[in-house]
TrEMBL record:
Protein name: LuxR family transcriptional regulator
Domain HTH luxR-type positions: 702-767
Pfam families per record: AAA_22, GerE, HTH_77
TM ranges: none
PANTHER family, per database record: HTH-TYPE TRANSCRIPTIONAL REGULATOR RV0890C-RELATED (PTHR47691:SF3), REGULATOR-RELATED (PTHR47691)
Lineage top rank: taxon: Bacteria
């Protein structure tokens, strides 16, 4: 799984704040109790009340008590409901290489998992989150969902826990009693952080109580106020807050509502900012998630905020806790808490500056995409991919802006073309296709950029196995390229068609098309595309029967990648050499190439190539008299394939060899031992599987073979053992015949079987050993 699993990383606030967070013991305990009673718990409350940090405390306590995996998905930056499931799948580390709906891929991958899934900031996607959470908890009995939202999800069986403000002292409380209230403890904790000399004395009791009561116990309000302890005494701070709040309570009975309390605190912080700080606050709200100084200087400068002053103004907003600082490899980024950003959005709208700032934001990220395209092979490739991952939310906002007018759509199509490797390398197939569709619908007829968007969409559809969409997109791309006379776009169309021929085991056609595409790529100086096509060309030539030439083409592709410091296509070029050697050549060379691929994976997070590599290594082990190792690697490979939503048998050249290797292993070990070894491999986390493949560790403790199958697959396996046909199984279980076919294919693949009799035997033996 990707970042966010187990380590509680990838969250929406500074992780150090979790350890120093004050109070919430009662709420943490109640949330834990509700999680034991229900598969869906939602923490509700207004912005600034502390829902996110409470969710983190609950998740950490849950993991410590149960050892379950924990995945934290922040949705504050997500604006497209259609991207909810792909976003969750990406954080989980699940692939997007299937034509099946993403929800089916996620459900299938989670059915056998023990997991706490935290969905943070659901309120702006409440309908989508409700549908997703309900689907997951119904289909995945060991998955629990913890959501945070300003409103409940409204799902049957949902338990709702309103998150109250922190406890506040009562008027007249003693100093000893007041300092034990949660709101006071948080204020002291934060005030001490900004002013180390800050100390409470008994004479501070009255202004302290007045202050905390004014702030309604809202954690974000307390933190914003605590920043002022650096410049004001406690009494001065309380007095100034009284004046600020008098505007709200004028002509009204009682105290302001809590959301107005929060607004008043942010208003006060805004009033205390300088003019340039207010301007930057409003303008920076156009960013989604975090941003760096270069972006702030380009997008937010101008008029009363000269570019050369932006750094100084950023420092002022950091000092006032309006901006928060985050460190990443190679740089520093800034972000706002969502309530603070929303305030900035309102201020920008009031100044009628939203349209201009969104365009400037889009232009900056269009320029960034162009730099990426130019420097992809020239500079730090891994650094560029890391940067685009951090800018993903901003790329989405920029592309969304491009869907507004035909002129903007052309810019968006150009951006997609410039960062095409990002969608491909990161496996963002559904999202990439969505952006092409939306931009294609808006762009005017005849724009040359359309051909590049269409071939990219066609390639992503091909990877997912959506052949109808692949053919439609490629035909349209070819027609657009011909109309505009764009030879480079035409070359990409040939390349994608060649890839389809490679998958379909039509090696003569694949070899011919790749060769033609490479000639065009070289004529136009597109070296990235040349490298991409070259390793595929080498594999096709080899499998078409010209082993010596195929070996030479692949060796040259690897050498060119190494010389340039290129890493992504190098991994695939090495795998292509390994695959060709496995199918028709030297198994020792195949194994060595696979080892190089797996070591590259430490730098490049690409599960698909790992799945292919473990599959080839399993075949090599089967053919060199190591059946136990082969079975374990087969299990590990199948588990990786399950998480990426695809299967190696889609590639027809592998279908027969994989079946032969499976038969060899089961004949050598017997079914019972083979199943046990396969189950051990399937149970290994991907890091352990890679270490085992590199012979750096032994397999973990054995688990029962039944754990390889999901609950539904186990049910179907038992019905198979009764001798029922697929249609009869569908009728009994009330599901579609096609669904039964798919489940049985998965059962055969996971257990390493080739027919239904073997499944029946496995069911009988499992029952005997129970």
């Amino acid at each position: 799984m990707a970042d966010g699993v187990g380590s509680l990383s990838g969250w929406s606030a500074d992780p150090t704040e979790v350890t120093s967070y004050v109070g919430r013991d009662a709420e943490t305990g109640e949330a834990r109790r509700l999680l034991e009673a229900s598969s869906l718990v939602t923490l509700t409350g207004p912005g600034g009340v502390g829902k996110t940090r409470l969710a983190w405390r609950v998740a950490a306590a849950h993991r410590e008590a149960t050892a379950d995996e924990v995945v934290f998905v922040s949705l504050a930056e997500l604006r497209e409901p259609a991207l909810l499931v792909p976003t969750v799948a990406n954080v989980l580390g699940f692939g997007d290489r299937s034509a099946k709906p993403a929800i089916e891929v996620v459900v299938e991958a989670l059915q056998a998992s023990r997991l706490l899934l935290v969905l943070d900031n659901c309120e702006h996607l409440v309908d989508s989150c409700a549908w997703f959470a309900d689907t997951v908890v119904r289909a995945c009995p060991q998955v629990t969902v913890l959501a945070t939202s300003r409103q409940s999800l409204g799902v049957a069986g949902e338990r709702v826990l309103p998150v109250p403000p922190l406890a506040i002292p009562e008027q007249g409380d003693s100093f000893e009693r007041a300092v034990n209230d949660e709101s006071v403890r948080l204020f002291v904790d934060r005030a001490t952080a900004v002013a180390p000399s800050f100390r409470l004395t008994e004479s501070d009791t009255e202004p302290l109580i007045r202050l905390c009561r004014r702030l309604d116990g809202l954690p974000l309000a307390i933190e914003l106020a605590a920043v002022r302890a650096r410049a004001l005494s406690l009494r001065q701070l309380a007095d100034r807050l009284d004046k600020q709040f008098s505007v709200l309570t004028k002509d009204r009975r009682g105290r302001p509502e809590r959301h107005e309390t929060m607004r008043a605190l942010i208003d006060w912080s805004h009033d205390l900012c300088t003019g340039p700080e207010r301007l930057l606050w409003a303008r920076a709200s156009v960013f989604s998630g975090s941003f760096d100084l270069d972006a702030a200087e380009q997008v937010c400068s101008g008029g009363e905020l000269p570019r050369e002053q932006v750094l100084e103004v950023v420092d002022g907003l950091l000092d006032k806790s309006i901006l928060l600082r985050e460190e990443y490899p190679g740089g520093v980024r800034y972000r706002m808490l969502e309530s603070v950003r929303e305030y900035g959005v309102d201020r920008l709208r009031e100044a009628d500056g939203t349209a201009d700032l969104r365009k400037r934001h889009r232009d900056w990220f269009a320029e960034l995409a162009g730099r990426y395209a130019t420097e992809w092979l020239e500079t730090d490739q891994l650094g560029w991919i890391g940067r685009l991952r951090r800018e993903h939310a901003n790329l989405r906002v920029a592309l969304d802006h491009c869907t507004g007018t035909p002129e903007d759509a052309v810019v968006g199509l150009r951006m997609l073309r410039d960062v095409k490797e990002f969608w491909i390398v990161r496996g963002l197939n559904t999202e990439g296709r969505m952006w092409v569709r939306r931009l294609d619908e808006v762009a005017a007829a005849g724009v040359p950029e359309r051909a590049h968007g269409l071939w990219l969409s066609g390639f992503l559809a091909l990877v997912q196995g959506d052949m109808a969409a692949y053919r439609c997109m490629l035909d349209r791309a070819a027609a657009e390229a011909e109309t505009s006379g764009d030879e480079l776009a035409a070359a990409y169309v040939l390349h994608v068609r060649a890839y389809a021929a490679l998958i379909g085991n039509d090696m003569p056609e694949a070899s011919r098309l790749f060769g033609t595409a490479i000639d065009l790529f070289r004529a136009h100086g597109d070296e990235g595309a040349d490298l991409w096509a070259s390793y595929n060309h080498g594999l096709a030539v080899w499998l078409d029967g010209d082993i010596d030439r195929g070996r030479a083409v692949l060796a040259e592709a690897v050498e060119r990648c190494e010389r340039r410091g290129e890493v992504f296509w190098r991994g695939w070029a090495l795998w292509s050499r390994a695959a060709a050697e496995y199918l028709q050549g030297d198994l020792s060379v195949a194994s060595r190439c696979c080892e190089q691929v797996l070591r590259l994976h430490e730098r490049v997070d690409d599960r698909v190539v790992v799945g292919f590599t473990l599959t080839v290594l399993a075949g090599c082990a089967a053919r060199t008299g190591r059946p136990n190792r082969a079975a374990i690697l087969q299990g590990a490979a199948m588990d990786v394939w399950r998480t990426v939503g695809a299967w190696p048998t889609r590639y027809e050249a592998f279908t027969e060899p994989l079946q032969t290797d499976t038969d060899t292993v089961t004949a050598a070990l017997g079914w019972e031992v083979a199943i046990k070894e396969f189950a051990d491999g399937a149970a290994m986390p991907i890091g352990d599987a890679i270490a085992y493949a590199l012979e750096e560790r032994s397999p973990g403790p054995r688990k029962q073979a039944a754990q390889v199958l999901t609950k539904r697959e186990t049910e179907i396996a038992h019905v198979v053992a009764e001798g029922l046909t697929n249609q009869e199984i569908a009728d009994r279980l009330g599901i579609a015949r096609r669904t039964v076919d798919t489940h049985i294919d998965h059962i055969l693949t996971k257990l390493g079987y080739s027919n239904r009799v073997q499944v029946a035997t496995w069911v009988t033996r499992s029952a005997d050993s129970a």
